[in-house]
Amino acid sequence: MSVFGPMVSFTAPERAIKAHIKKWISYYLAQAEIADSREPGKIQRPLSYVRTNRLSTIPGDDVTPQILIAVRGDDGVPRRKGSGAYDVTLAVGVAVVTGSTDQDYARDMAGVYAVSLAALFLHRPRFDGLLGGKLRVVEWGGVRMDDLANDSERTMTLIRMPLTIEAKEVVSAFKGPYDLDEPPTDPTTPHPDWPLVEVIEVEVEPKEIT
Q1: Fewer beta carbons within 10 angstroms: which end of the chain, N or C?
Q2: CB 129: neighbour CB atoms within 10 A?
Q3: DSSP 3-state assignment of 166?
Q4: What is residue 4's predicted lDDT score, i.e. its pLDDT?
Q5: Cβ atoms 121, 137 nearer than 8 A
Q6: Long-range contact list for 101-107, CB < 8 A, 24+ apart?
Q7: Bridge partner list, 91
Q8: How far apart are CA 137 and CA 90, in angstroms?
């Protein structure tokens, strides 16, 4: 058992969400195309993934459709369990930028992406056990679609989808190297785990109750 207990990076959910989307998005896009009376596979699949909460530049043809993922921080007060481990609720943003010289196609592509991601997060909220099953979507915040101004002849559409994600046991108050007064000279030295008790011997003395 680790002396430090759980230590889940607050950006680890971004990696889990990215892996989850990459695994399932093509399948969900195909099903959304079929539901929208389109030939499955015609809509361009994602060409790039970016972990950021700011769209600083309009992405070009070579990287769109582009999916953006960002954890914006706690969404509420962390909750401590009896074990000392803390669960946190995270505000997460997922966005997609689509673009095309055909305005109708650009908008329709954005709509297919929006419903595909919504269905994916609602159908598979636990991210297939990524991060040890500590993550799950607890609220889908809907979809917002905006056209992006740009200098080219392409129509650019931005989809924004807020999510609320619960991350379990990210850190513990009842753990830590309590046997140390100073950090080791080499801070990269792993701290030995606490030993586990294998055998417990209990002596019971009978006592007369009067």
Answers
A1: C
A2: 10
A3: strand
A4: 86
A5: yes
A6: 101/153, 101/154, 101/155, 102/155, 103/155, 106/154, 106/155, 106/156, 106/157, 107/145, 107/155, 107/157
A7: 73, 164
A8: 10
Which residues have C-beta within 8 Å of that of residue 78, sequence separation ≥ 6?
86, 87, 88, 170
As a whole number of angstroms, the distance between CA 98 and CA 18 comes to: 17
Q: What's the helix, strand, coil split of the chain in %, to 5?
A: 25, 30, 45
The string of DSSP codes covering 15-59 is: HHHHHHHHHHHHHHHHHHHHHTT--TT-SPPP-EEEE-S---S--
Structure tokens at 3: 């002396």
Q: Which amino acid is at 52?
A: T
Q: What is the pLDDT of residues 49-76, one digit of tens each?
A: 999 877 656 677 778 899 999 998 887 8
**Does this model's pTM top 0.85?**
no
Average pLDDT rounded to a whole number, residues 136-165:
88
CATH topology of domain 12-172: STM4215-like (3.30.2000)
- CA angle 132/138/144 to nearest 5° reads 120
Cα 65 to Cα 154: distance, rounded to the nearest angstrom: 13
Q: Are strands 66-74 and 48-51 parallel, antiparallel or unpaired?
A: parallel
State which amino acid sits at residue 86: Y
**Residue 142 falls in which region: left (phi positive, over 0), alpha (psi -120 to 50) or beta:** left
